[in-house]
Design brief:
It contains no helices and eleven strands. Helices cover 0% and strands 58% of the residues. It is mostly beta strands. Strands 2, 4, 5, 6, 9, 10 and 11 form a seven-stranded mixed sheet that branches. Strand 7 and strand 8 form a beta hairpin.
Length: 115
Amino acid sequence: QVQFVESGGGLVQPGGSLRLSCAASGSIFNLYKMGWYRQAPGTQRELVATITRGGSTDYGDSVKGRFTISRDNAKNTAFLQMNSLKPEDTAVYYCRVVILGDSYWGQGTQVTVSS
C-alpha cells in the first residue's frame, strides 16, 4: 500500500503562485516517478508534470515555462511550483507515483484560480 500526504492547494488570483507538495510513504521501495495530473469538471485527466528518481522531467504543454517540478528523493516528496496561474489552471490536482510499473494516485487537492 502507498499512502500520500498532499498539500498546498487553494484559491489564488490570476497571476499568482501556489506550491503543491506530495509525500509518499508505505510500500514505496523502487519508487520511480512522481508527478501531478489534473482534472477540471467535464474534462479528461491531463498531465501536469512528472519527475523521475534521476531528475528527468516532463511537462504538459499548457504549463511549460510556468510550472516547475522538483523532488526530494530522501523524503519521497515531490513539489510543484506553479507561477503565473491562469483561470484555466483551475482543477483538482492529483499526485501520482509509479512503482515497478504500477501507478498509485493520491486523493487530489483543489486549485482554484479566480479573481
